[in-house]
């Protein structure tokens, strides 16, 4: 993934996460989704047109559209007040695609760091599908927390490693650290936020049509 685009993917995931947590008004999050969604269309299109037919470059760039279309879909949902179901089922498509890109990073690209990062994204988009497509509203705050954290650990941090030229030497270590971090932190958060979202406990999650 283009390192500059990845930096701003981190930003929009963080904003959307805190929106789901109820810390940010949905309409105030829409512009960032438009900005990053637009950027993530320009970037892969440029990479594909300048790839000179290189299959690996085109393959890697194609994954960026999964992000751009998600963010633009979110922005339009917020702006137009649309039902979340269509976005939710698109997230199911992204979830399956992210699993494939994870496998490709482990095998074809020999990049375990992004192999794990794509697994993170697959998990996040699965949560979006459950929340938005299947209306599992009890997952709202949990999804928001996972999304906000992923903004930092799958966007901001690896982008800085790429931009400073440090990623290659640390890819293997990053993969192990992220794998352990994900299991421990996201597992613990599910226990904590799952209890808070149990029946009988007042929900504070924003309406799901504004999510992702």
Automatic annotation (TrEMBL):
Subcellular location: Cell membrane
Main location: membrane
Keywords for this protein: Cell membrane, Membrane, Transmembrane, Transmembrane helix, Transport
N-terminal signal peptide: none
Residues that span the membrane, as ranges: 6-24, 31-49, 55-74, 86-104, 116-134, 146-164, 170-193
Membrane topology: Multi-pass membrane protein
Source organism superkingdom: Bacteria
Keyword Transport: yes
Nucleus recorded as keyword: no
Family as reported in the entry's similarity comment: Belongs to the AmiS/UreI family.
The protein's name in its UniProt record: AmiS/UreI family transporter
Species for this entry: Pseudonocardia parietis
């Amino acid at each position: 993934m283009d390192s500059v685009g990845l930096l701003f993917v981190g930003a929009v995931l963080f904003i959307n996460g805190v929106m789901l947590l109820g810390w940010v008004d949905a309409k105030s999050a829409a512009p960032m989704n438009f900005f990053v969604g637009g950027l993530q269309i320009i970037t892969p299109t440029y990479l594909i047109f300048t790839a000179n037919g290189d299959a690996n470059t085109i393959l890697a760039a194609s994954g960026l559209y999964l992000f751009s279309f998600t963010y633009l879909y979110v922005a339009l949902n917020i702006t137009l007040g649309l039902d979340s179901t269509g976005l939710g089922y698109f997230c199911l498509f992204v979830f399956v695609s992210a699993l494939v890109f994870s496998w490709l990073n482990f095998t074809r690209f020999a990049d375990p760091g992004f192999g794990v990062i794509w697994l993170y994204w697959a998990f996040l988009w699965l949560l979006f599908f459950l929340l938005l497509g299947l209306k599992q509203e009890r997952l709202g705050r949990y999804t928001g927390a996972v999304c906000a954290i992923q903004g930092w650990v799958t966007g901001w941090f690896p982008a800085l490693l790429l931009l400073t030229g440090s990623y290659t030497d640390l890819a293997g270590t990053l993969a192990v650290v992220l794998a352990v971090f994900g299991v421990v932190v996201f597992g613990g958060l599910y226990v904590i936020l799952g209890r808070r979202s149990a029946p009988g406990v007042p929900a504070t999650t924003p309406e799901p049509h504004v999510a992702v």
